[in-house]
Recover the amino acids of this structure.
């Protein structure tokens, strides 16, 4: 009769679940922002924005995107040894274990228990007196061995949403790990390109210092012959010192940059190998930025924001399920005896129990309602964060595209300017030696050439950095 009663109780609970489930939304949808059809400045680089290209730039593995062997080695070391990335991997491992645990939410809990007790009541108590009179004993012993089982029916989808929360936590952690790796690779590449720029600028400063030294010697020879004044020697020396002061400055910056790259690669400060000089590679063929809609799938931070929204939806479902009754069923069985010698005497020592209950929260001090309202607000915050991440991503891609185009245009101007100044210096030297130009014209031309070549090196570095920024903005670097 007891078993029949429990079955009826469970059936009534399931019927109640079916009726009430019509009032609970199984899933919560949200409106997505309409993304623009293309990036602003998409007409700047047709080779990158042509939709007819087959392969997305973001889908290109980083070891294919970067062509410098030394840079590849540096990035490989950073991915393997960087401490921040290693911490992200540990967080991912924890999230995976939590997700694995959550998958067992629908599985009944089973517990094994072994108990032994001995009670010696007072001889002057009623229990002690009865014990001595009936059993001629001064103490009571009891031994039990039981297996217990408990299970909660997932009527309202609470356990299902708990699994979804654990899953989204894992996927968010994985997206965070990818975002750390993407940022790390971009930082290493940009630091390496900055190192190449400093190498170029150091060589430029040394060449200009040697050039001004020759000019100074020529002016000193003319001074000795009375053709120029001491002012000419002073200005030539000042121009030479202006170039020479840059040499230790660039050497210092090179060491600092090498140390920073060493730390990113997970090693102590050391020299960094370079394979090639400062040069801007051409864009690979059959590559495309794709459409803005691809950012949701490619960019780890945008994906993480989208998963946060799914997580918030599941939290709302969990909070809403707390308003409704919970059905819990339990059972236990084992052996029990007052005598150790009879503990495993079967079937006399066997026992079994079955329980079932429905718990309906009634008055919880607004705890359940407040938790539900907070979950709704958190979901709205997740929607706002997702929209913001998409806006930032589209903006970064557009900025990188226009930077690549405009920096390339600046490079054309700077190269022509440097060429003109090189020719001007050659002509100025000949004219100065023949007495048709003043020393001041030579000194000014040398100073302008130094400035122009330093600016050209900065422009090339910025172009390389802009390409890395575009690659990262599109979501590349974690493959």
């Amino acid at each position: 009769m007891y078993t029949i009663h429990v079955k009826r109780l469970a059936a009534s609970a399931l019927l109640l679940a079916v009726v009430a489930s019509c009032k609970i939304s199984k899933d919560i949808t949200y409106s997505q922002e309409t993304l623009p059809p293309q990036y602003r400045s998409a007409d700047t680089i047709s080779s990158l924005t042509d939709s007819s290209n087959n392969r997305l730039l973001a889908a290109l593995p980083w070891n294919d995107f970067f062509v410098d062997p030394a840079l590849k080695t540096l990035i490989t070391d950073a991915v393997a040894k960087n401490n921040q990335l290693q911490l992200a991997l540990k967080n991912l491992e924890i999230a995976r274990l939590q997700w694995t645990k959550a998958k067992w939410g629908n599985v009944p809990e089973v517990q094994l228990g072994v108990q032994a007790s001995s009670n010696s009541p007072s001889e002057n108590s009623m229990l002690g007196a009865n014990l001595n009179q009936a059993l001629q004993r001064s103490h009571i012993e009891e031994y039990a061995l039981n297996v217990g089982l408990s299970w909660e029916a997932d009527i309202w989808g609470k356990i299902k949403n708990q699994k979804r929360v654990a899953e989204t936590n894992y996927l968010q952690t994985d997206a965070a790990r990818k975002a750390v790796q993407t940022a790390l690779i971009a930082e290493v590449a940009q630091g390496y390109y900055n190192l190449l720029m400093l190498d170029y600028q150091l060589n430029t400063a040394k060449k200009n210092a040697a050039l001004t030294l020759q000019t100074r010697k020529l002016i000193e020879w003319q001074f000795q012959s009375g053709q120029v004044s001491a002012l000419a020697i002073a200005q030539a020396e000042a121009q030479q010192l202006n170039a020479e002061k840059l040499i230790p400055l660039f050497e210092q910056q090179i060491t600092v940059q090498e140390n920073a790259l060493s730390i990113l690669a997970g090693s102590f400060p050391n020299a960094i190998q370079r394979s090639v000089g400062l040069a801007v590679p051409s864009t690979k063929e059959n590559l495309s930025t794709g459409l803005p809609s691809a950012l949701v799938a490619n960019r780890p931070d945008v994906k993480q924001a989208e998963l946060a929204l799914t997580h918030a939806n599941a939290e709302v479902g969990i909070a809403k399920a707390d308003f409704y009754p919970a059905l819990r069923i339990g059972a236990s069985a084992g052996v029990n005896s007052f005598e150790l010698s009879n503990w495993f005497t079967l079937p006399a020592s066997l026992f079994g129990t079955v329980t079932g209950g429905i718990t309906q929260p009634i008055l919880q001090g607004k705890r359940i309602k407040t938790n539900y309202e907070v979950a709704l607000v958190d979901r709205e915050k997740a929607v706002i964060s997702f929209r913001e991440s998409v806006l930032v991503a589209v903006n970064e891609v557009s900025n990188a595209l226009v930077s690549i185009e405009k920096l390339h245009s600046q490079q054309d101007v700077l190269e022509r300017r440097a060429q003109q100044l090189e020719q001007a210096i050659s002509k100025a030297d000949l004219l100065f030696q023949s007495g048709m130009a003043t020393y001041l014209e030579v000194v000014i031309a040398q100073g302008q050439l130094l400035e122009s070549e330093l600016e050209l090196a900065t422009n090339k570095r910025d172009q390389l950095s802009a390409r890395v920024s575009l690659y990262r903005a599109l979501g590349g670097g974690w493959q």
